[in-house]
Design brief:
The chain is an all-alpha fold. 70% of the residues lie in helices and 0% in strands. Helix 7 runs antiparallel to helix 8 and helix 20 packs parallel to helix 22.
Length: 367
């Protein structure tokens, strides 16, 4: 027998050992170990052992200690966890950020806002997510953070404000102002957040930014936001923007025009379906036409069956089947005789079958 076998393991040693075991990804007992640690830490003495473990020399211990403390959700742990936001190891900082989000204590708001500029992009995202979990009490500090000199802080604060329930009333005006930010990513998330808020008061500012912003991804996000808001004042500026040389922007515009529900866009959609050089624009224009006016869309969709792009033909077949008008049966039957991609051939068969069944049902109803 060794001299140490009769020496009982201290509670601290046991917790440290279990923290190591918890980090063992190959262990089938991880859930049992985590449960045991949570059970052990229900008393103040054991919680203090875990808090002290946040300063252990081994980063594995520090990380797993933060994880268990997050499961406990004890207010006593908040200040020590905030100190650990400065840990030299990214893995530890990330776990601490997630833990503070789980505890949802207002004391963590300002430290988490500063963590929005962590050197690790992933941790910056987790910090923003943690702030959304803390919720409405983080709104005012996040609005104040929109004036920070740091791009990362402004960008992530803008994102976070879009994901906190009931933040719109306070944040819509400050976020609208961020559309003038010098940083492209900040403006991108500002447009995204305004789309989430769906406030019609932002439409004119969004349209102004659409005309003047030079960044393609920001303009794309602005168009998406206008689609969510569904204000018909956007129809004319959007149809005018179809002259934009970028195909990605044109695709998004023809898609969004159907959301706005204004038939004033039909002429431009017809032109896009017939003449746009990009197949993605053409098939999205076809879909938008159908949403705006099924009856008016039938003839252009029949013409689109002869499009040079298989994707456009496939979409036209699908939409004609969905509309179910008997005028499409003959052109679809003719198309079936051509050499077709197998996926198009099956879509043609399905469309003809769907339209035939619909015609039969209408005939039965009339009887």
């Amino acid at each position: 027998m060794s001299e140490t076998e009769d020496i009982p393991e201290t509670t601290e040693a046991r917790i440290i050992r279990l923290l190591y075991e918890l980090e063992d990804k190959s262990s089938s007992l991880r859930d049992d170990v985590a449960y045991l640690l949570r059970t052990l830490a229900k008393r103040r003495k054991e919680i203090n052992i875990l808090i002290n473990a946040l300063k252990h020399d081994d980063s594995i211990i520090r990380k797993t200690a933060a994880y268990i403390l997050g499961n406990l959700r004890d207010p006593l742990t908040v200040e020590p966890l905030i100190e650990s936001l400065n840990d030299e190891e990214a893995d530890v900082r990330g776990e601490v950020v997630r833990t503070l989000g789980a505890i949802r204590d207002d004391r963590a708001i300002e430290p988490l806002i500063q963590t929005l500029n962590d050197e690790c992009r992933e941790i910056r995202g987790w910090a923003a997510s943690a702030l959304t979990k803390i919720g409405f009490s983080a709104v005012d500090p996040l609005i104040a953070a929109l004036d920070e000199d740091n791009n990362n802080i402004r960008m992530n604060a803008t994102w976070a404000l879009g994901h906190i329930e009931d933040s719109a009333e306070k944040a819509v005006a400050p976020i609208t102002g961020v559309l003038d930010d010098d940083n492209d990513e900040v403006r991108f998330y500002a447009a995204e957040t305004l789309g989430i808020y769906m406030d019609i008061r932002t439409v004119l500012t969004l349209l102004d930014s659409l005309r003047n912003d030079l960044d393609e991804s920001v303009r794309w996000k602005i168009i998406e936001a206008l689609g969510f808001i569904k204000d018909k004042r956007a129809v004319k500026p959007l149809t005018e923007a179809l002259a934009n040389e970028d195909a990605g922007i044109r695709r998004k515009i023809v898609e969004v025009l159907s959301f706005l529900g204004d038939k004033g866009a039909i002429v431009e959609l017809l032109n896009s379906l017939k003449y746009d050089e990009d197949p993605g624009v053409r098939w999205r224009a076809a879909e938008s036409l159908m949403h705006l006016d099924e009856e008016l869309a039938i003839d252009p969709l029949i013409v689109a069956l002869n499009d040079e792009d298989a994707g456009v033909v496939r979409k036209a077949v699908q939409l004609l089947g969905r509309i179910g008008d008997q005028r499409a049966i003959q052109p679809l039957t003719e198309l079936k005789k051509a050499e077709l991609d197998i996926t198009i051939f099956k879509r043609v068969e399905e469309a003809i079958e769907t339209i035939t069944k619909r015609i039969d049902l209408i005939s039965q109803d009339k009887l």
